[in-house]
Amino acid sequence: MIEIREGDLEAFFSAPFEIYGERAPYVSPMFGDLKRFLSAGQNPLFDTAADFAFFTAHEGATVRGRITAHVHRASNARFGLAQGYFGYFDCTDDDRVAAALLEQAEDWARARGFTELLGNFNLTAMQQVGIMTGGFENAPYTDQIWGPPYLPQLLEARGYSATFPMTTFEIDVGTATTGGLLAKGQMQALHDDGFRFSPIRRATLGQRLEDSRLILNESFSDNPMFVPVTRAEYEFQAKEMKWIMDPRISAVVEKDGAPVGSVIAIPDVNPMLKAMGSRLGLSAPWHLLKHRLQRRRAVVIFQGVKPEHQGRGLNPLMLAHVLGQMRQAGYETAGGTWIADANAASLRQAERAGARPLHRLHLFGKTL
After folding, report:
1. Secondary-structure class of domain 3-168 per CATH
2. Would 40 disulfide with which of 49, 65, 137, 231, CB 3.0-4.6 Å?
3. What is the CA radius of gyration of the chain?
4. Which keywords annotate this record (predicted)?
């Protein structure tokens, strides 16, 4: 018999470890971060505790699955929707368990008047998005989702349809074709026109992150599903980045002293989290030191250019610059968060940089 429990944080955290096992590529956020994400008092994505719920499926003494249900009110208001969302859908390969979890999320959404349920969305303003539909053998970078091949089939069996296809990519930093991104003449023209890179240092990190948030909101304003990120939401997520950031591999582009573009990249902490079991313990300082000495993978969290400066080659220039900085700092590969199939410009840039597809993802939705 499948038992559904609400609000069991320990079971929610341990579910994917028990379901997928140690050898799976899955990597969990830190227990403390997951606790923050699931707290209405701390997560500014939610107005009240009624805006979300989380559930676990149990069979006897075994945790068999988990799921969240939530609303993103700013998204519904901006796009005129009545959508509920699910996230963190991790489940054993069992139709009974999947049905019990999804029914719980659907009932939660119906009770609030929503007419559609869509996911995965993993509970931050700049959410991890999607259900993996390809590339299952590839280990995820920080801020990338991983799930087993059977999850799409479990969703389809419950009437969910795949939509909004996306891809994540990986770049070999040592061999990246930065020349294919932007010719030297174009780079020189941008420098001659007064565009300059300004490094992100720890002393200026707070201001630079705020500059990056404003650039993010302006540069992504026309992207599908994008909702402007508030300062509270951005700082909530940046809190977990500050202790791992490597200032050498992020930068802001300025023109006449004003920020006009930004690229934020961080070291990939997933190998460290995997070794720690995503919990703080007595060995945490040793794992952190080892991580800092052996950083070889980086992640481009986002890059963007203010609309009035788009179309001039600043995005390729920033990527070429950051890849060069990564190479000098000893990084070997760089991953990126998802790019939607509809974003032709970003897909072309990834191709010109020599990026290879890493994971395939889709959203899965159902009319209630």
Report:
1. alpha beta
2. 49
3. 21
4. Transferase
